[in-house]
Amino acid sequence: MVTWNKAAMTKHLWALCNDDGNSLWSSWVRSYLLRGRSIWEIKCPKDCSWSWRKILSLRSLVRWKMRYRVGNGSSISLWFDHWHPLGPLIEVFGERFIYDSGLGQNAKVEAIIDGQEWHWPISRSPAWLELISSAPTSCWPDSRRLDVLQWIDAPKGSFSVRGVWESLRPRHSRVN
User: How distant, in Å, are the alpha carbons of 141, 157, 160 from that of 41?
Assistant: First the structure.
């Protein structure tokens, strides 16, 4: 039951990351609780509700299972979302990297896109060179497409509570 509850609560986290505008609740949370920040960067307030605390506690469990396919980059956090093959850039390079880039903490991936090309900030930093060289051709932007959030463990990348449950639940040998 614990694993099933986590899978069901992950649906709320998915709705917050997948900005499709269909959920009144996720729109409210983005406006009043996130206030333009990424769900991945905020700290859990001491005075928050039980359900909000549970949703925030799921982040570490499912962060690496949610990945964006870059389109125009307008809905993807440059630093906090998992869109690059190296993973969330904040976890790979740290906060100093954000400062050195000259881009803000709330920057979207669209800040480094020019049409169908990457437009990386000019830097001689070895970290930037690693970032640029590790961006494969499958990760190239396309300003004509929308960004797509994918569940990595699903064959077509589509999200379902059952799929989350299947990927989170403990597996044991079959008993005769």
Answer: 24, 24, 24
**Could you read off the pLDDT of 90-130 as tens digits, one per residue?**
988 888 888 888 888 889 999 988 888 888 887 767 887 88
Give pairs for 144-147: CB < 8 Å, separation 24+: 144/71, 144/72, 145/71, 145/72, 146/71, 146/72, 146/75, 147/68, 147/69, 147/70, 147/71, 147/72, 147/73, 147/74, 147/75, 147/76, 147/83, 147/109
Average pLDDT over residues 71-82: 90
HEC letters along 15-80: HHHCCCCCCHHHHHHHHHHHCCCCCCCCCCCCCCCHHHHHHHHCHHHHHHHEEEECCCCCCCECCC
Rounded CA separation 127/54 (Å): 34
- Segment 14-25, tens digit of pLDDT: 988 887 667 888
Indicate the DSSP class of residue 108.
B
The 10 Å CB-count burial string (b at 16+, else e) for 82-103 is bbbeeebbbeebeeebbeebeb
Per-residue pLDDT at 138: 64
